Amino acid sequence: MKKLFLGIIERITRFFATPQTKQPLTLEEALKIGKVLLQHPKVKGGISEHIATRNPKLIPAEFAPKGNSTPKEGVITYFALDIMAWRSLSVTVLNQTSFKFI
Prior knowledge:
It contains 2 helices and 5 strands, in the order H-H-E-E-E-E-E. By secondary structure, the protein is of the alpha+beta class. It has one domain (2-101).
């Protein structure tokens, strides 16, 4: 199964650090910075894999968020660049989620 999610991409517990700060990043922080390869379980089984971001500079204008909606509690929303669509995942699956900068 894709080498068990690519070794759960070095495990979610080993978050990625920026070279400047050496501080670990959460998934939400990584999404705001740039593009990440994101893998997480689907609700109905299987694995969802996307090139994801929350960086407004990387999201095409026609898909840019409109207004200042309040984020849902317990949900991380991201833009999937590979399919040009908004997606979300529950924070309850973060321990089964992996990501890396691309």
